[in-house]
Structures
1.
Amino acid sequence: MRLIRSEWTKLRSVRGTWLLAGSTVPVTAAIGLVGILGTAGEWQTALNDQWDPTAISLKGILVGQLLVAMVGASAITSEYSTGMIVASLSVVPQRGRLLAAKVGAAALLVVPTAIISVAVAFGLGQLAIAQAGVPAASVTDPGVLAALLGAAGYLALVGVLGLALGTITRSSTGTLGVIVVVALLAPAFIPALPGAVGEWLATYWPTSAGQMAYTVIQTGSLAPPEGAAVLGVFAVCATAVSYVLLRLRDA
């Protein structure tokens, strides 16, 4: 716990980290609202049994996840950029302990940020959906609370992934580039791949699968827990790779 407190002190002293975390809430909510307002007219004439107002209100996570990943990455990239990582490794030569402490410290900021972002995006989104004259969701509706928890869990795992990528690339810019590819570009292009390969990748690509965690109406072949598990395994594997590289490379 002492090591986590030390890492938390370092993380909270980085001004950019708070800017990223503070921006996640309005950005996630705003992107969701833009999507709702832009398509509200279509919903009034074409609702079907796949109508999922919960997932619709959380579309802003597609952009918000980039900020959350950078919050996680800043737990270590800020040290590489200033050279403080040398001192950190001197004080804590057990690199596995250091990485675990950074995960814990990042979670102290990422998890509340995720919960608040999801709550605000859902609340404002449902108000906008109701104003459009179509059925909105309530926390008491079946499956909605689980979807909200799944959304918060999704963002938390992306934060862990961001820390792993930050450890691997040693760069905030490098981390952002990789997370944009993993979370946005690859899911957009993978469905165009032919045959069974494209279908399998579209289903099991980590972020695409993970987004099933915050759906109430299942539209894909993965149930919400299964999708969350795929992303969780990917985040654990990325963290394992980052640990190996942290051990093998010089500061």
2.
Amino acid sequence: MKLMFAVRAKPGLTREEALEHLAQRHAPLVKGSVTLRKRLKTYIQNHAISAPSVPKLTLARDWIVESWRDPSVVLPEPPEAPDAIEVREDEGRFPDRATLLALNTEEAPVWHADPNAPFASAPYKIFTYFKRNPEIAPEAFDRAWSEAADALSAISPFREKATSFIRNRPVPGEGGPKTASGGPSAPVVPQYDAVDIWRFPTREALEALVSEGGFRSAMDGYEKRLAEPGSLFRFASVESIVFDDALIDPASRT
């Protein structure tokens, strides 16, 4: 199970200031927390980048955290060890907690150009969040999403410029949002029904794909078929792997 947090900088902080704090101060605190790392096995930060050619690119989120947890590890909530308290206190300094978007998700890979390629070879990503088109019955949505993803993936520019496509299925959580390093914290009822993640080797490849006319048209059709009108937003980012004890990244397995 993966927990995803889409986060906005706290009012009064610029995106640049918040991302600097996230990378230079917060990441080392999480990485160094012996307590939190008992259950937090992989922790990845995705920092927003400018990508003007990407349609429906949101300016409302500044980073996304992806974390994989060991569900068998139970800690007091909130953890009261000094190292965990230090992380929690730091999480009050730079994110806008009021707008935190949290989802528990299950990954469903559509394709990988090379399943053994390290994430560092394709660190640029597009996240696409959307709600189910009401014309699709809830019980039919996953199949429709899978079929549409396969059809989109058959377009040659996608395979030429991207390196992978992973569907992320939101699943019910266990309570309201807390912190990116805390316990179960995705909403009981997910706020979105789907998250697509596409990987790219360079920012130029990312922007070239969404600027290509044939693919852009197919992407619009994919969106119209699956997404509730007005519900979709995209987020372009560059990835930073803070640690990967769960061996999600193939490079961590060597």
